[in-house]
Amino acid sequence: MKTKRSTKPSAKPAPERGKVMNGAEILVECLEREGVDVIFAYPGGCSMPLHQALTKTKKIRTILPRHEQGGVFAAEGYARVTGRAGVCMATSGPGATNLVTGIADAFMDSIPLVAITGQVPQEMIGRGAFQETDVFGMTLPMVKHSYLVWDINEIPRIVKEAFHIAQSGRPGPVLIDIPKNIQNATAQPVFPKTVSLRGYKPDKKADDAALHEIVGMLEHAKKPMIYCGGGVISGDASAELLEFAERTRIPVATTLMGIGCFPETHPLSLKWLGMHGTVYANNAVNEADLLLAIGVRFDDRVTGKVENFCEHGTIVHIDIDNSEINKNKLVRLPVLSDLKYALGRLNKMLDQAGFKRQAKGQGRYADWFRQIAKWKAAHPLSFKDTPDTIQPQHVIRELCELTKGNAIITTGVGQHQMWAGQFYNFTKPRTFVTSAGLGSMGFGFPAALGAKVARPDKEVIDIDGDGSFLMNVQELATAHIEGIAAKAIILNNQHLGMVVQWEDRFHGGNRGHTFLGDPKDLKRIYPDYVQLCKGFGVTCERVLHKKDLRAAIQRLLASKEAYVLDVMTPYTEHVLPMIPAGKTYRDIITE
Predict the structure, then answer these.
(1) What domains appear along the chain, each with residue ranges and CATH number?
(2) Could you say which of 25, 29, 68, 264 is catalytic?
(3) pLDDT > 80? residue 97
(4) CB atoms closer than 10 angstroms to residue 191
(5) What predicted TM-score, i.e. pTM, was given to this entire model?
């Protein structure tokens, strides 16, 4: 006898009811259920109950940063190397406001982050209570979503939603603000097992018709280029991108955020493009007749004068976020999709169309490759080396050679950041950790701590500048006390190097408060990082001569603890090539 198939939807998993707990304990239980293993949290009056609850868990490691900004940057470092949401926590008022830069940083770079803040009791909200700030309101433009908890029974749902939102679709930061009285109240929580958000459908899949159109475009293109960014990494689509490039034989240029999504040692790699990208990547992208923009947002640091960017080429834009489509640059074919899905389908279509995968060879674009080879020969990434003065580019080349390109590199923001991207060869995703969109100085070392906590099996090195490192120097205490063996190499030129470069190029060399040393004693190296690190219990050595550099880097790499190298470099060195702001690739400065 046939049984009639039910037309009713399958029942959702029944929620689980827990024991009676206070709000803080419920929150910690929710974090455990989301698989959180570490939280970077600085306590204060309105988050004390949360910290008391954290002392009772054996599943979550609480790391005490020495500044809330260090904590949120560390959470970002964790997220950037794992793809999972980093978690940080602070108290109300100044604790919460100290998280804001890191939240904005995560928003600009599409990094999954859950930031938890304590808030004054509900009855005091809006009355100007001690350490009260409207962190919910002030972060609205820089979060993917935010919550002000108004009912203790809502905590399990809110936490589950927060992690789902932060990690799905285009990742981003989510804020949870919890009044102190709710942390202290008690309830018997109900833990949901699924998330259902009306109107939020992060899984986007490209239409086959659009993908077939791309294949057709490839068959007629003579000068195609792939321009790809951080979306490839956050979409876990690096393997699919590699196959796509090898099937089509199309050269690849990444953005700064996309570094590592395609191996830079591959014959098809042109490294990265933009203001300080390679000449050949900028030329190729701008002179392509077909530009495949994958997981990018046409940032001004990449495009220069955007209306002239790839002005004669046909542009295809594949991205998971509809708000980025045609926002900065009008394109011929927009494709809204998860990148892993879109590239995977394209690879199947290419296989059926006879595009065989090959790691070498020029395919149907021999003339295009010859032109690119000429650009490479005319404008390689290079610098004028010297017998004894330590050029910053040389430091990074030495580090790349000694680590065989296998380390996770974090950076601060400035010249050193650009040189790290230029002279270290990255072959895997999630190995270059940098503040790209917001450009937050002070990011490098705390991010290295978070990355090392997440990946203790990997060598993690912060390449930093003396100005940027000093902005969160207090996190040396976190490294020492918590036993986090992150390393740092400070390229110390005693100046705000990138601003000095702009002063030299556009302001006649007039110095506008960019000297970081001691004007009363110009021969003195200030601050003394060797003594400063010693006070934190961290080994630091200063390198003055080129002959001493390699051995010093080897000692840094051999250390089982946090270690800092203070490498003295000239402030007169400029990052080249350089496309001036608002100009085009034709205006690039190479010497």
Answers:
(1) 16-191 (3.40.50.970), 208-378 (3.40.50.1220), 392-568 (3.40.50.970)
(2) 68
(3) yes
(4) 17
(5) 0.96
